[in-house]
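Progress against Task 2.4 (sequence-to-structure conversion) is shown through the following example record, which the project officer requested during the mid-term review.
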Amino acid sequence: MAQLKFSWKAKLADHWRDISALGSSSFYFSLIAAAALLGVKIVALRLLVGYFLIEIVVWLVRLVHYKERPDKEKFTAWWQKVNTGSFPSAHAARAAFTMMVLSWHFQSLYLSLFLAVLSVFVMQARVYLKRHDDWDVFAGQLLGVALTLLA
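Structure tokens generated for the chain above:
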């Protein structure tokens, strides 16, 4: 019988990957759908508008200023190059935007603090997983906050 090896490093990487998913497009659209189904349509609409604003700005910045990820990725087409760019972090931007929209809507100090901590965890996860460096996630956070003020 084969013996299973336990690795704290692998477990930690799994946890950071799970946290990173809180800034992913699939989680974001799940949140939009949940808000719409729960009747909080203004939140769903702001999140949807924010998603497209973030994507547009991130793609435009990456078209003008391409920066490789810490773990370099190969690409063959121009749109893959833009998608493999690391500056700014779209995950961090979506996490910050979500934090701001939900905090403003629900006006709860505890929810706001919880979301702020999750947002910082998403940033740290992206750095730990070598998808971004500190400047990438910081710029993503600033972008998310700035677009919240505009949306």
